[in-house]
Amino acid sequence: MIASRSLQLHTPSMRPCERSQNKGYRSPLGDVSLENKPFSSTILESKSSNENHKPNCEQISLESTFSQSHSSSSTILESQTPKPYSNFHFQDIFGNFHRFFRPYTYRFRALFVRVYPQGYCYSDDSEIVITKSHKAIISQTSYPTHAFALPKGASLARKILESIKQCKLWARFYYQRLFKLHRVNGSLALLHQATNYYHFLSESIAALEQIRRSGLEPDYYLLAQDMPYQRQMWQILQIPESKILPLSPSRLIQAKSLIVPTLIANFESVEWRDGILLSRTLALPMLLQQFYKNFAKLLPPQESPKKRKIFLTRPSGSNRHLENTKEVESIFTAFGYEIILPDDLSLVEQACMARESSIIASMHGAGLSNAFFMQEGAVVFEIFPQYYHYSCPQFCALLMGCRYFYMVAQTTDTTPHPQQESAYVCPKELQKALQKLESYL
Question: Which superkingdom does the taxonomy of this entry point to (predicted)?
């Protein structure tokens, strides 16, 4: 039995649609050994409009999130009315269908903030949480499989290998508990430790927002500060540096009260190409929408409305790049786009840039996460390599009420992993795409 108390956070969810008939649906979280123990819960989200029907969570589908942007096509350019936006089946800018873009619904499980008295954790990205009674919380992970859980469907040899790894982890835990334990005399909030810009803005912030909504006030936060945008975010949110415990590889911490929010762990396994399987996220929680609407109020005031057109270029030497970068950038420039490398900007500068933009275009990458800062009705245009179509920027855009478009370029070299695919963009097709986009601005 795990001793903990839980605060329940209700978040809008997504139901399996009629087309899918809920086939293939898997719970995004593993079983938590709290099922047989009653706990008090506090509803912190909005209530159902039907007083006689009180579901565990509100229901919202990806389709309805997408269609909300139809009515939000406010005139970005006052001199003309934007073309109506409707794309239920997520066709590309030319009307073509792609197998990784489809309408579906997804049900989020209720979010909980759990408090573990005398709980243990590591000050790194391992996401290992151990209770006072030395039980690992295997549901506490943003990965498909927790470090202390055996992969489903694994061979006997793989299970034996993973079991050996777990024995080593337990041996390390007991050794550090006896000789190298770092104690925190107070409450410690454990967040998702992301070093990637997208995962930070989505998963780390979602964890922080859960704690804020719970009403708990941690004495300390275990926060990543390696990247400038991370330090800038904590400063904007006024988290005192004295309350931040920096990350340290393999350091075991025991806190008087360990505060643990629910991590985003909603995956599906897809085959990108040639039998290469990889997991991808299915949805983002709606609480991020409210966070970034509130965050916009913390930015410097906008002196005058701007309608910037931005193309985000990628750093030289990036593992995913455009093979004809100069040619692509010259076409964007001809259509009035500014060419910007987001890595050169601070977090506030990127947020202000996105807020002032009527459209942001880019090769698939973390830079498109700046859609979190865009105004409702703005346009996001994403260029994909031929085989790797991860949906994170699409989620960011739809969540914030933006209008989302994409095109799929050509991949000439398939030797790298799909995540590292580069792409060649046909100049004529790009010109046609940008011309189509002009009618939506």
Answer: Bacteria
Q: What is the pLDDT of residues 157-181, one digit of tens each?
A: 988 999 999 999 999 999 999 999 9
Question: CA 49, 51, 57: angle at the middle one, nearest 5?
Answer: 60
Tokens of 245: 């415990």
Alpha-carbon distance of 355 to 359, in angstroms, equals: 10
Q: What is the DSSP string of 376-419?
A: TT-EEEEEE-SS----HHHHHHHHTT-EEEEEE-B-S--SS-GG
Q: What is the DSSP string of 407-440?
A: EE-B-S--SS-GGG--BB--HHHHHHHHHHHHTT
State which H helix or E strand residue 227 sits in: none
Distance from C-alpha of 213 to C-alpha of 12, rounded to nearest angstrom: 15
Q: Answer for the pair 188, 221: CB distance below 8 angstroms, yes or no.
A: yes
- Helical packing angle, 287-296 and 205-214, nearest 10°: 90
End-to-end CA distance of the chain: 57
The Cα–Cα gap between 135 and 130 comes to 5
> pLDDT tens digits for 315-331?
887 788 899 999 999 99
Alpha helices by DSSP H, 256-324: 287-296
> Which amino acid makes up residue 354?
A
> What are the residues facing 362 on neighbouring strands?
312, 382
For 209, what's the count of Cα atoms within 13 Å in the CB-facing half-sphere?
Answer: 25
Question: Residue 439 contacts by C-beta under 8 Å, 6 or more apart in sequence?
Answer: 82, 83
